[in-house]
Design goal:
Blueprint: E1 4-5, H1 8-28, E2 34-40, H2 44-60, E3 63-69, H3 75-87, E4 93-96, H4 106-112, H5 124-132, H6 140-151, E5 160-164, H7 171-180, E6 184-188, H8 195-199, E7 204-207, E8 225-228, E9 232-233, E10 239-240, H9 245-249, E11 254-255, H10 262-279
Parallel strand pairs: 1-11, 2-3, 2-4, 5-6, 5-7, 7-8, 8-11
Antiparallel strand pairs: 9-10
Helix pairs in contact: 1-10, 2-10, 6-7, 6-10
This protein binds NADPH dihydro-nicotinamide-adenine-dinucleotide phosphate and 5,10-Methenyltetrahydrofolate.
The site of 5,10-Methenyltetrahydrofolate (GUE) has 19 residues, from helix 2, strand 4 and helix 10.
Binding site for NADP(+): 165-167, 231
Function: Catalyzes the oxidation of 5,10-methylenetetrahydrofolate to 5,10-methenyltetrahydrofolate and then the hydrolysis of 5,10-methenyltetrahydrofolate to 10-formyltetrahydrofolate.
GO cellular component, one term: cytosol
């Protein structure tokens, strides 16, 4: 079998076109969706991601502002900046770009963002709602993956989903979302034994390890759906995923490329969450 491509870039472009119209209509009702992005330090990867997000906001008519703080900013100062944005009624969404410098407690910062403006879906209140199956802002990467699966009518109910990676921003919420949709979910991580054996049981295999080409075709069951979340910069400067694409695509029914797979969908779902925040809504 040669897999069909799950083209995140293409789907993102379609969704952004729809959102552009939605934003126009909101503006006629005097609702002007606004996202604040806070960037600490000058990590090049973070800067490039933030640029992509700004561009996407511009395209859809969502206004955005970037607050750049020096690497040396104190935790207290950062918390004060967040408080200012929480209290600004014209700001609907707040994103603090991760990772943060070591002297700043990431969890403390996430706690400080108003759950109503938490368009990343990282606040413990929103994660708790996700666990309970209540309405909330869905974390953008898992939400984007779900949207890609739905766009191809890929069945989730009753399927075996194996997630490699258990981070708070990708792996954990991905498993919760699939569980909510009645998949049978297995989490794998660095202490997992027999990773390949477990991966081979997956109908839906989500790889979010941050390890270049750690998974190849020998981990993929014939006909499985392979989602590659990894973003790794190779020595030649190009981006590549956690999955060795050429061998995996020979086994899979669907596969996401890197770049132009999950990455663009993450940004698009951020815009979606910002529009929802502006409308005073969140989604289950
Ligand atoms: N496309 C997108 O939109 C996004 C892409 N990313 C990318 O996705 C990747 C993962 O990101 P993130 O979740 O934040 O990463 P983390 O580094 O936080 O988590 C990596 C996970 O992979 C597990 N892992 C590492 N090595 C192995 C191994 N050899 N075998 C099994 N499991 C392993 C770790 O296990 P343990 O918990 O035991 O340490 C951990 O749970 C990165 O490349 C990142 O850049 C991230 C966010 C969005
Ligand atoms: N608070 C917070 N929220 C995040 O959502 C968040 C974060 N911090 N920190 C870092 C990770 C990483 N992440 C990516 C988003 C888009 C692409 C993306 O658009 N990638 C393009 C390539 C872009 C390029 O060429 O540089 C693609 O895959 O096609 C990548 C990575 C969001 N993250």
């Amino acid at each position: 079998m040669t897999a069909e491509l799950l083209n995140g870039r293409e789907l993102s472009d379609e969704l952004k076109e729809e959102m552009k119209h939605e934003v126009e209509i909101l503006k006629q009702q005097n609702i002007h969706p606004h996202l604040t992005v806070i960037l600490v330090g000058d990590n090049p990867a973070s800067k490039s991601y933030v640029k992509g997000k700004e561009k996407a906001c511009d395209f859809t008519g969502i206004s955005s502002n970037l607050i750049e703080l020096p690497e040396s900013v104190s935790e207290q100062e950062l918390l004060q900046v967040i408080e200012g944005q929480n209290n600004d009624k014209d700001v609907h969404g707040i994103l603090v770009q991760l990772p943060l410098p070591d002297h700043i407690d990431e969890q403390k910062v996430i706690h400080a963002i108003s759950p109503l403006k938490d368009v990343d879906g990282f606040h413990p209140v929103n994660i708790g709602k996700l666990v309970n199956g209540e309405e909330t802002f869905l974390p953008c990467t898992p939400y984007g993956i779900l949207t890609m699966l739905e766009s191809k009518n890929i069945e989730i109910e009753g399927k075996r989903a194996v997630i490699i990676g258990r981070s708070n921003i990708v792996g954990k919420p991905m498993g919760l979302l699939l569980l909510e949709r009645n998949a049978t979910v297995t989490y794998c991580h660095s202490r997992t034994q027999n990773l390949r054996e477990l991966a081979l049981e997956a109908d839906i295999l989500v790889v979010a390890m941050g390890r270049e080409h750690a998974v190849d075709g020998s981990y993929v069951k014939e006909g499985a759906v392979v989602i590659d979340v990894g973003i790794n910069r190779m020595d030649n400067g190009k981006l590549t995923g956690d999955v060795e694409f050429e061998s995996a695509k020979e086994k899979a029914s669907y596969i996401t490329p890197v770049p132009r797979g999950v990455g663009p969908m993450t940004i698009t779902m951020l815009l979606k969450n910002t529009i929802k925040a502006a409308k005073g809504l969140s989604e289950k």
